[in-house]
Design goal:
Strand content: 25-35%
Strand order of the largest sheet: 2-1-4
Structural class: mainly beta
Helix content: under 10%
CATH class: Mainly Beta
Distance between the termini: 28 Å
Oligomer: single chain
Bound molecules: zinc ion
Order of helices and strands: EEHEEE
Length: 80
């Protein structure tokens, strides 16, 4: 596994998710690489850059933090 600061969307495999935290309402979303690409991100986009490009559907604030994760997906953030 690559360190998170170096990981790009294209480095994530099946079963991998990107976890995004909302600083305002503590909503947590787990996004699949496929979902991120469907929203217009490129495979070369860095995972750590995603937080500032995603907006929380719960409160409209930008995401605060991201982490790679293996978990069940949920879709609570959309691209700005
Ligand atoms: Zn929120």
């Amino acid at each position: 596994m690559l360190p998170l600061y170096a990981a790009r969307i294209e480095d994530l495999g099946p079963g991998d998710f990107v976890k995004v935290d909302c600083a305002a309402c503590h909503h947590v979303a787990l996004l699949t690489p496929e979902a991120l690409l469907r929203q217009g991100l490129t495979p070369a986009a860095k995972v750590l850059d995603l937080a500032g490009r995603l907006r929380c559907r719960g409160c409209g604030r930008r995401g605060r933090a991201v982490a790679a994760a293996h978990n069940k997906p949920a879709f609570g953030f959309q691209l700005l």
